[in-house]
């Protein structure tokens, strides 16, 4: 069996899914979620602080993913995957208006990100939550991680 490096394994796993959730951290001060949505051929941005004009951190990450896809496809044929277009760097970025699901403090972005991952269907949130729910979610996630150890 040929050796597959971790970067190649990650890319191949991405290609097996319609949606790939990528947490993005901005200078260790804020988290938001990028969703590679293969069916829609777009990169969705879910940010608890709202929309932003500058997503250089995300575009750099997507360009890095594109380089990995290109390097792998030069070595072997990428087939039997769910993505109809492998030129992910050309896909548009779409900022999703999170409406009610926005933070009003300076410390809940990570919790919002985790809830976006849990409830985002690719088109909408499957459940609603607000800043007022974050205390409950802190306890929920703490209990979840405690029970995992």
From TrEMBL:
Listed GO CC annotations: nucleus
Family: Belongs to the peptidase C48 family.
Keyword line: Hydrolase, Protease, Thiol protease
GO biological process, one term: protein desumoylation
Top-rank taxon: Eukaryota
Lineage of producing organism: Eukaryota, Viridiplantae, Streptophyta, Embryophyta, Tracheophyta
Name of protein: Ubiquitin-like protease family profile domain-containing protein
PROSITE patterns: ULP_PROTEASE
Molecular function terms from GO: deSUMOylase activity
One Pfam short name: Peptidase_C48
Coiled-coil residues: none
Ranges for domain Ubiquitin-like protease family profile: 1-120
